[in-house]
């Protein structure tokens, strides 16, 4: 990506990239960043939070290797170190969740959702790394992203597994996390792949063990060709948001935990910040 010079008076002086935070976006994300604890060595550091985010967003958006981070941003090892630190200490989760609530409140919704949509996406991987397999149905060698989003398409839960893991098996994982983290959700829409006769207990298990109704949205037999299914297009759009970032067009990460964190970073940038600043349309389902 080509850099331009940041306007005078912005928080960062020097080159700006298309992936860099605007002043408006920075004003939204700054209040939800963790406060540094001076007693734990969290005082003044060499690189500010905005530069940390701009450097990580550059890797996400461009898809470059960490070692190829431009010299006018952070040193690559420092940027990678902060990305990993925030993954391990839950900072990415806290930023993501705070911004998601802000988007929902701004749209006139309750902070926590009552309904959601589940789906899975198979994605190719680079060589190496854990949890790689083959999805025979999609004919894809790599990993699978199991996600649950709210009715605005904002991420609630994500689990990255081998592509060989069946949607129903991955569905159990993310539904269990959903029940723990979002007790307000009582209804989840899914496609027919989650109700296959081989694992017909998934729907009853979700109802009896988790208190969640999984409603299957099926294509009617009399409809031919492509058709946007109600309740289903929201999660497809969320997958579209993810792959706009070249780092997520393929899974380059060695660890699945890193893949999950990178997905949350993408949703922070595209799903939440752009919604608040008006950079993305806020269409959603009426619930």
UniProtKB/TrEMBL annotation:
It comes from the Bacteria. Residues 21-96 form the Insertion element IS402-like domain. Coiled coil: none annotated. Residues 112-269 form the Transposase IS4-like domain. One of its GO terms (biological process) is DNA transposition. NCBIfam families: transpos_IS5_3. This is Transposase. The lineage of its organism: Bacteria, Bacillati, Actinomycetota, Actinomycetes, Kitasatosporales.
């Amino acid at each position: 990506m080509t850099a331009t010079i940041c306007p005078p008076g912005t928080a960062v002086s020097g080159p700006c990239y298309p992936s860099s935070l605007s002043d408006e976006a920075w004003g939204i994300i700054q209040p939800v960043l963790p406060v540094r604890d001076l007693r734990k060595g969290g005082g003044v550091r060499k690189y500010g939070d905005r530069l940390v985010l701009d450097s990580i967003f550059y890797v996400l958006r461009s898809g470059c290797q960490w070692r190829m981070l431009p010299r006018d941003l952070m040193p690559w090892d420092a940027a990678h170190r902060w990305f990993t630190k925030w993954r391990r200490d839950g900072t990415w989760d806290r930023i993501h969740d705070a911004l998601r609530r802000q988007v929902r409140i701004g749209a006139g919704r309750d902070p926590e959702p009552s309904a959601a949509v589940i789906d899975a996406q198979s994605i190719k991987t680079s060589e190496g790394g854990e949890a790689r397999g083959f999805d025979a149905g999609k004919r894809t060698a790599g990993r699978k992203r199991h996600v649950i989003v709210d009715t605005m398409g904002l991420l609630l839960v994500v689990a990255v597994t081998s592509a060989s893991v069946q949607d129903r098996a991955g569905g159990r994982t993310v539904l269990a996390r959903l029940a723990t983290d979002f007790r307000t959700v009582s209804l989840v829409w899914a496609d027919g792949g989650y109700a296959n006769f081989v694992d017909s207990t998934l729907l009853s298990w979700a109802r009896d063990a988790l208190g969640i109704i999984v409603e299957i949205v099926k294509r009617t037999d009399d409809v031919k060709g492509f058709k946007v299914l109600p309740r289903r297009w929201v999660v497809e759009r969320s997958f579209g948001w993810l792959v706009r970032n070249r780092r997520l067009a393929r899974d380059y990460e060695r660890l699945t935990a890193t893949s999950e964190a990178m997905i949350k970073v993408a949703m922070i940038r595209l799903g939440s910040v752009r919604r608040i600043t008006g950079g993305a349309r806020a269409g959603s389902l009426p619930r």
